[in-house]
Design a protein that fits this description.
Blueprint (H helix, E strand, L loop, with lengths): L16 E6 L6 E2 L8 E2 L11 E5 H6 L14 E6 H7 L2 E4 L12 E5 L7 H14 L1 E2 L2
Antiparallel strand pairs: 1-4, 1-5, 2-3, 4-7, 5-8, 6-7
Helix pairs in contact: 2-3
Length: about 140
């Protein structure tokens, strides 16, 4: 029997932050031509079968890690967003530990939509709201 889709865990407080590693590639980063910080492009928050991979701040801290520790390369970027802003966008957050990553896996969470598949206009709207609410963590 397939596992029921859990898209939001109300036990995760809205004031919690989650962090997304974004590769320094044109499809994922929009440079600020006025010299300010870059912004994530819509491709940086693309949803896969498990959701959008993020790391929850409290869980990182419990492992003595910081958002900076999720970077694999020095030119990667890390963006944060509050769980309340994720929820206001129409998505949710669930913990989804990654057993294949010994260091960061216990802090892994997922931003998810209300169903495994949603229509493209809704997905685009949610991603735009998430991008508008996130900040560069570095």
């Amino acid at each position: 029997m397939p596992e029921e889709w859990q898209w939001d865990d109300p036990a995760i407080p809205g004031e919690s932050a989650v962090f997304r590693k974004v590769l320094a590639r044109p499809n994922f980063i929009v440079p600020n031509l006025e010299g300010g910080p870059p912004a994530p492009a819509p491709g940086a928050f693309k949803c896969d079968a498990d959701g959008i991979s993020v790391y929850r701040d409290e869980l990182l801290k419990s492992l003595s890690l910081t958002p900076e520790d999720i970077k694999k390369n020095t030119d990667d970027h890390v963006f944060g967003i509050f769980v309340s802003d994720v929820r206001e966008s129409g998505a949710g957050v669930v913990d989804s530990p990654d057993d294949e990553d010994e260091e960061l896996g216990p802090a892994h969470s997922s931003i998810r939509y209300s169903a495994p598949k949603i229509d493209k206009p809704s997905e685009r709207r949610i991603r735009e709201r998430i991008i508008d609410a996130c900040w560069l963590s570095e």
